[in-house]
Specification:
Largest sheet of chain B: 7 strands, antiparallel
Low-confidence stretches of chain B: none
Mean pLDDT of chain A: 79
Number of helices of chain B: 26
Number of strands of chain A: 0
Strand content of chain B: 15-25%
Shape of chain A: elongated
Strand content of chain A: under 5%
Radius of gyration of chain A: 18 Å
Oligomer: heterodimer
Structural class of chain B: alpha+beta
Distance between the termini of chain A: 57 Å
Helix content of chain A: 55-70%
Radius of gyration of chain B: 32 Å
Shape of chain B: elongated
Helix content of chain B: 40-55%
């Protein structure tokens, strides 16, 4: 059970990293337009 | 069918085998695309390109944003995108244009963002380049920033909720299988730590909503939610200190679910509103002002009363004024609703927003900007259309709901206090308040509404709000405007022989004139291959001359509403021009009748024309010669009889009626100001979207009602259980997602119900 004392903060920090990444993605506008990128990836790019 | 080729760019049928293009515009577009090395476009595209037209003018007046390194950036609306290749070709052509730094075109919305170096190229040239390919760029009005705030709150709430769930899951297992007290305490304090930002920051919009509602003396749905969140958190703090389990995991999930529902709703609504606004966007106007013997192009706002401006055929008047020289035909359909062009001569008044169909005029400016008739009418409309916030169905339930919850809570508290004492009474009262938090009820409307807005938008009708969409379900009388609504609202060929149309189209195919384009359009629609016109000469305010099949022809005005095509030998053909009803108008009216709705036609036009159009569309009730106020009055009179009226119109003159009707629907092709006052906008040149939207509204309402019944039933059950003492934090944590899941599952039915009706 004592391992919990270490595992819990580690779990929270790991989760926090993903949450922070998500927030960063939102702030950079990656969720602003969810309709276009699926269309775009079908086109060839030079 | 054509025996020979088709235009390489736009696919119009052509007679002569060796001809490759239908007009110079298409030839230019092909040259631009080939010149940029993008010939691949013609192999890969899924749909032919539109025929290039004239570029809108006035780009110098479009506001641009200034970025780093002296670059300028602008967002435009591009019309005419037909497939993903269109996006590709626009992006590639612009990217290869010297001076352009970055281009991005969205296929879904038609938005283009362009960044360029103003020292090397200007916006007019860029817009001209898009137009030369056949697409129509327009300036955009103000835009709302994407709502990232809700998304961030949701992200934080979801993160905290998941971890809370994890911690609480171990606490709950600890109930059955004893956990060391120090770990249990650690878990509880960590939970409180995670729940704090959820309660104070993530749930802030609900508190703000509740306070705003109280200020305006309405109890709406945010109030019981805010109450629930406050009680959950307060109870959590107390239990953490005293060493018991609270409802903190329920708090996290509740806030995350509610935020998700709210985000879906705001996303759906913003998309519909933005699409509607982009239909209302128009290019700003410029004018050619006489300065001595010279002409200079200036922004419309720079004009002053007394200036002399030149207006050419096909141009829009930038200001109100009096004609001093020249003659021509003016079309004022968007202002007056009259489709027939009006002939003007020196001394006649013209107003901003109308279009000179043919001829050339010099106009002495009398009123500009906000002083023009157009602006004054638009301003009046905006005042009339300020309807204020209407409560949603859920908001109407909210006061009763809150009152009922409080009564039950007080009874529970009092009942247990006298029988089992204060301790039990408080625990059970908290349980009542917790399970009464109307999460499922609050989700029932936004989820179904978001689904409904999306379903209606996919079928061509964009609604400003879910309430307007839901009102559509009650409509029992549909009133249409004539010009531009039941009819296409533009010059079209009403009647002509195929042979005459073929020759006329051969003469007119190189012209950009609105009548010329209508003739070519008619020929293309009848699949007549365009012959080649030779020695074609356009003569201002006369017509057009040229040779087709070796015979010299001339095409000139043949009196009001008709053209006369004649050759040297005296052979004559008449081409009747006018407004035609939309292809789906008759079918839509019939369908509305079958569904039990009455249909009426309200128009400012003469009874004769109105009767002809009404007969063609199958409309029984006709009210002709209405001015804008009479249209609104007619609607009001029907409303007093207890009818629920939908009005569809397109012009500025329809504004009062659009604002008065229970549901006002504007045509996307209509006046910008009518789009601004309407509840919804039809995004295609058709009437059938009204039918689909009505089905959507009914499906939506049905789903919302059954969702509300379900969630109220859940609340009633859960509150009774809580009052009886059967609810503890574990049971609450299991019940909450169950009830919300039921509502979410219900909302998924909207699209399915509508699709079943499509068939």
């Amino acid at each position: 059970m004592n391992a919990i004392v270490f595992l819990l903060p580690i779990a929270l920090v790991l989760g926090g990293i993903f949450a922070a990444l998500f927030l960063r993605a939102v702030k950079k506008g990656q969720f602003d337009d969810l309709d276009d990128p699926p269309q775009r990836m079908l086109q060839e790019r030079d | 069918m054509s025996t020979a080729g088709r235009c390489i760019h736009c696919g119009t049928a052509l007679e002569a085998r060796e001809e490759r293009f239908c007009c110079r515009g298409c030839e230019m577009a092909f040259a631009i695309i080939q010149g940029a090395g993008l010939g691949r476009y013609y192999d890969e595209r899924e749909a032919c390109a539109p025929r290039p037209g004239e570029a809108a003018t006035g780009w110098m007046a479009v506001p641009v944003s200034h970025g780093a390194n002296g670059l300028e950036e602008v967002r435009l609306q591009v019309d005419g995108l037909r497939c993903a290749s269109c996006v590709w070709v626009i992006e590639q052509v612009l990217e290869r244009t010297p001076g352009v730094d970055h281009v991005m075109v969205s296929y879904a919305t038609g938005r283009a963002s362009i960044r360029w170096d103003p020292r090397r190229i200007d916006l007019t040239a860029l817009a001209g380049r898009i137009a030369a390919l056949g697409y129509r760029p327009r300036a955009l009005g103000e835009e709302s920033a994407p709502d990232r705030d809700l998304m961030i709150r949701l992200g934080v709430a979801a993160f905290c909720a998941m971890n809370l769930m994890l911690l609480y899951a171990s606490l709950y297992t600890g109930w059955f299988d004893a956990m060391e007290p120090r770990f249990a305490a650690l878990f509880r304090w960590l939970s409180l730590l995670l729940a704090t930002p959820v309660a104070f920051w993530c749930a802030a919009p609900f508190f703000a909503g509740a306070v705003a509602g109280l200020r305006r003396r309405v109890l709406h749905m945010d109030l019981p939610i805010a109450l629930g969140v406050a009680i959950l958190y307060g109870h959590g703090v107390v239990t953490t200190i005293t060493g018991h389990e609270g409802y903190l995991d329920s708090l996290g999930m509740l806030v995350a679910l509610l935020l998700a529902g709210r985000m879906l709703e705001s996303r759906g609504r913003r998309r519909a509103v933005e699409a509607a606004m982009s239909l209302a966007a128009t290019a700003p106007r410029t004018a050619r002002r006489q300065v001595g013997d010279q002409l200079e192009t200036v922004e419309a706002s720079a004009l002053r009363a007394g200036d002399q401006i030149d207006v050419g055929s096909g141009e829009e008047f930038a200001a109100d004024g009096v004609v001093t020289e020249g003659a021509g035909q003016v079309r004022m359909a968007l202002l007056t609703g009259e489709a027939d062009p009006v002939a003007v001569r020196p001394g006649d008044r013209v107003v901003a927003g109308s279009i000179l169909l043919d001829g050339a005029l010099t106009v002495r400016v009398e009123a500009v900007g906000g002083e023009t008739m157009l602006s004054r009418m638009a301003a009046q409309l905006e005042q009339a259309a300020d309807r204020g916030m209407r409560p949603t169905a859920a908001d109407r339930i909210a006061p009763w709901f809150t009152a009922a919850t409080l009564v039950v809570a007080i009874l529970t508290c009092a009942g247990w206090w006298v029988t089992l004492g204060a301790d039990v009474a408080l625990t059970r009262t908290v349980a009542v308040l917790v399970v009464a938090c109307p999460c499922a009820l609050a989700l029932s409307q936004p989820l179904a509404a978001a689904a409904g807005l999306g379903a209606a938008a996919r079928r061509g009708l964009l609604f400003r709000s879910a309430d307007a969409l839901l009102d559509l379900a009650d409509i029992d009388l549909v009133a249409f405007d004539k010009t531009g609504t039941v009819t296409a609202g533009s010059v079209a060929v009403l009647a002509a022989d195929d042979s005459a149309l073929r020759i006329a189209a051969g003469l007119e195919r190189y012209s950009m004139h609105p009548i010329a384009r209508a003739i070519v359009e008619a020929a293309v629609n009848r699949d007549i291959a365009l012959p080649r016109g030779e020695d074609v000469r356009e003569e201002v305010s006369f017509g057009i001359r040229g040779r087709v099949d070796g015979v010299q022809w001339q095409l000139a005005s043949g009196g009001p509403g008709s053209l006369l095509l004649s050759d040297e030998g005296g052979r004559e053909h008449r081409i009747i021009l006018g407004d035609v009803i939309r292809p789906d108008a008759a079918a839509t009216v019939r369908r509305l009748g079958i569904e039990g709705l009455d249909v009426a036609l309200l128009t400012g036009d003469h009874a004769e024309v109105a009767d002809r159009i009404a007969a063609a569309a199958g409309i029984g009730t006709v009210k002709a010669r209405c001015n804008p106020e009479q249209k609104a009055a007619w609607i009001e009179a029907r409303q007093r009889e207890g009818r629920h009226v939908l009005f569809a119109g397109d012009g500025l003159n329809d504004g009062p009626a659009l604002a008065k009707a229970d549901v006002g629907i504007a045509m996307g092709s209509g006046a910008a100001s009518s789009v601004l006052v309407a509840d919804g906008v039809i995004a295609r040149p058709a009437l059938a979207p009204i039918l689909a939207a009505r089905r959507t509204a009914r499906a939506c309402r049905q789903v919302i009602r059954s969702n509300q019944r379900r969630s109220l039933a859940y609340n009633a059950l859960a509150v009774s259980a809580a009052a009886a003492g059967f609810i503890n934090p574990l049971v609450a944590a299991l019940l909450m997602p169950l009830s919300s899941g039921l509502v979410i599952w219900g909302a998924l039915h909207v699209e399915r119900l509508v699709r079943a009706g499509d068939r």
